[in-house]
Amino acid sequence: MAEINLFENALKQFRKAAKVMELDPCLADVLMHPKRELTVNFPVRMDDGSVKVFTGHRVQHNIARGPAKGGIRYHPSVTLDEVKALAFWMTWKCAVVGIPYGGGKGGVAVDPSKLSTGELERLSRRFFSEIQVIIGEDKDIPAPDVNTNAQIMSWFMDTYSMNVGHSVLGIVTGKPMDIGGSAGRPEATGRGVRVVTEEAINYKGLDAESATIAVQGFGNVGSYAAKLIKDELGSKIVALSDVSGGIYNPDGLDIDDVIAYRDQNNGVVKGYPNAKAITNEELLTLDVDILIPAALENAITMENVNDVRAKVIVEGANGPVTPEAEEILLEKGIFIVPDFLANAGGVTVSYFEWVQGLQWYFWDIEDVRKALHKIMRQAFSNVVNTMHKYNTDMRTAAYIVAIDRVATATKLRGIYP
Ligand SMILES: NC(=O)C1=CN([C@@H]2O[C@H](COP(=O)(O)OP(=O)(O)OC[C@H]3O[C@@H](n4cnc5c(N)ncnc54)[C@H](OP(=O)(O)O)[C@@H]3O)[C@@H](O)[C@H]2O)C=CC1
Ligand SMILES: O=C(O)CCC(=O)C(=O)O
């Protein structure tokens, strides 16, 4: 299979929307370029006394509407192009939900499961110090993404705070609540997925309680999405997976039980007793009402798109469907809630966390959830209305809403006519 360049794919989506909305080509040009790209190669002392050099990146795609915002990922396949694509999507994500940020993203090419806790801490602190030249609570605010978590955010916050000599809560989001994290941030991306799934169910005239759902990826996003959709919408989660493979039960899985099993089983769902084992490939092509890819990018490509049978796809992950595969899904009439709308719940609660940190005043979880639901519902409705207005698909409509906001800010700030 030809190598997929994630940034090129992201630009293809953008160009499609720019054409539909007849965006000024000069503006399109500036909006397609990342503002800053920083690559750092940095040494980390390993437990055996040796020193290894790691490579990481931080990209700020656009800062017209506010500071750059976006997570940091640890994964062996991290590249600059991947981080550029993820930063690009963050710009549209923040704009589509109307929070005052631009887009940023970071990543380190590393398999964290191969590091001891000490090595992971040293790598995290050194990487954060290396990118400190471009980050700041009013410049660029990192957060968790794949394989990073609240502990790593604590090390980031502590490293920055040590370097400047006082505690800076607003430098990073996704922190534990004891050091300025927000109630509801761990569940936030999954909760946002739950809200747009409910909206999609209503929009498509499906019945929430009889709807069958398959979720690929059982980490932060996938596990909370599965739990909240089952608990709050009453839908049947019939299949789940992680990198080790999938599990399937046509009567519906008990998500709390699967989470408990995973937590006692080295973090994997493989071997869960009350279900049949399936592969990740089989999960993606199950005959379900709703498919939620919530693992990594490029899950649905030209290789498997013709086998996809879901009626609705809610993209929990960033970039799970390639542009070519999407055209086929759209021809088949499959309704897709695009990534930067579907998974915007995380950055929305990160925004709440940042605001709380700047004010040193913290909200109750009920207030966080209420504000999140309102923003996600409003964003879904804006995108559906735009889809009808332009007679287009949901992703293109989401780009149109978001591009319009960033273009307006860019024009107001000058330079462009
Ligand atoms: N965390 C957040 O707030 C947000 C995350 N996202 C996006 O959501 C996606 C998931 O992120 P998140 O949940 O945070 O990451 P996590 O690291 O918490 O979880 C990732 C999950 O995906 C699984 N996985 C990895 N590779 C594969 C594969 N090839 N096939 C099946 N499953 C796989 C992992 O399995 P295993 O554990 O076995 O490796 C794990 O269950 C990413 O695209 C991320 O960018 C988007 C918005 C916000
Ligand atoms: O919470 C955040 O700031 C960003 C999370 C993220 O990286 C994403 O939405 O892809």
Automatic annotation (TrEMBL):
GO terms for molecular function: glutamate dehydrogenase (NAD+) activity; nucleotide binding. Substrate binds at residues 69, 93, 350. The active site is at 105 (proton donor). Keywords: NAD, Nucleotide-binding, Oxidoreductase. The record marks 145 as: Important for catalysis. PROSITE patterns: GLFV_DEHYDROGENASE. Residues 182-414 form the Glutamate/phenylalanine/leucine/valine/L-tryptophan dehydrogenase C-terminal domain. One of its GO terms (biological process) is L-glutamate catabolic process. NAD(+) binds at residues 189, 220. The keyword DNA repair does not apply. The keyword Oxidoreductase applies. Belongs to the Glu/Leu/Phe/Val dehydrogenases family. This is Glutamate dehydrogenase. It comes from Kosmotoga pacifica.
